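Weekly puzzle thread! Below is a chain. First person to post its structure in token form gets bragging rights.
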Amino acid sequence: MFEQFKMLLKPQYHALWADYCRYLDLGWQHFAQKDLEASVKYEQLRLLEKAIRRDFALKTNVLARLQKFFVAENLSLYLLLEPLQAWRYLVVDSCPNSKNAAMEVLQHAVSPAARLQMVLNGQNPSTYLPMTTFFTAYFLYYGRMQKSSFLKNIKYSEKRWYNMLNGLLQDSFVLLEIVGSKRLKFALAMELNTLKIKLQKLLKHQQSKLDLLDRLKIIVYSIIQFIIVRKRTIVQKGL
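Winning reply:
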């Protein structure tokens, strides 16, 4: 789901990010499937947690590569463990019956990915929450567009979907004020504005595919924001 955001990272972290996204996607797909008994999936989760906490035997496996990367970069194993909380929810109910239930699952699935992005970019903890908000908006948008079964019980109109997603996205724009890297600031502006344009298309019932004019708007908006949005300290933002 989040693999495209490798472009926010320096090239030396692209392989790590690709493996981490694959880990998230495989776990989500496996534990959301309905043709396995819950007891079997709970046991698999127990064994997976056990494997994460010690060296994984199969050295070419995604998990083994991630463990090696995490040790090399001095990253917390909790970034591998926290998604298991989301997958436990999926074992019980792969289609949450309310927005609040879905958001609780997403918090455990999305937050570690957002934190990993900011850690690899050398950013401070004040960036974790707005990045989580952005990843949540991104996940919900694409889940909605792809008619994900995970969201099928959220019976919102297009207008209500737009308002919810636009609210999350607007909260995410604070990232441009608090990230400490100019490279990351511009890359984030491009991603934020891309989702903004796509949300506008959703509201107008237009195809989500971006045309040349849309891409020009994204570039122009991003350049303007890069120039005029000034960095604020944590104290100034009250974070």
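Puzzle host: Confirmed. Bonus trivia for everyone else. Residues 3 and 18 are 6 Å apart (CA to CA).
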